[in-house]
Specification:
mainly alpha, elongated
Length: 48
């Protein structure tokens, strides 16, 4: 990995929140202490 390939934490968080497949899961994870169950995640997107 080169310096150009390095992402900051804030860049990763921004990219995750902009991703339509990741965002709903991340939002649930941030709201729940234990994170969402697989049953909650599965219907969110075919990618999940």
């Amino acid at each position: 990995m080169t310096t150009e390939d390095t992402w900051s934490v804030s860049e990763i968080q921004k990219a995750q929140m902009e991703d339509p497949d990741i965002r709903p899961i991340l939002e649930k994870k941030l709201k729940l202490a234990d994170g969402p169950s697989w049953q909650e995640i599965t219907p969110e997107s075919p990618a999940t």
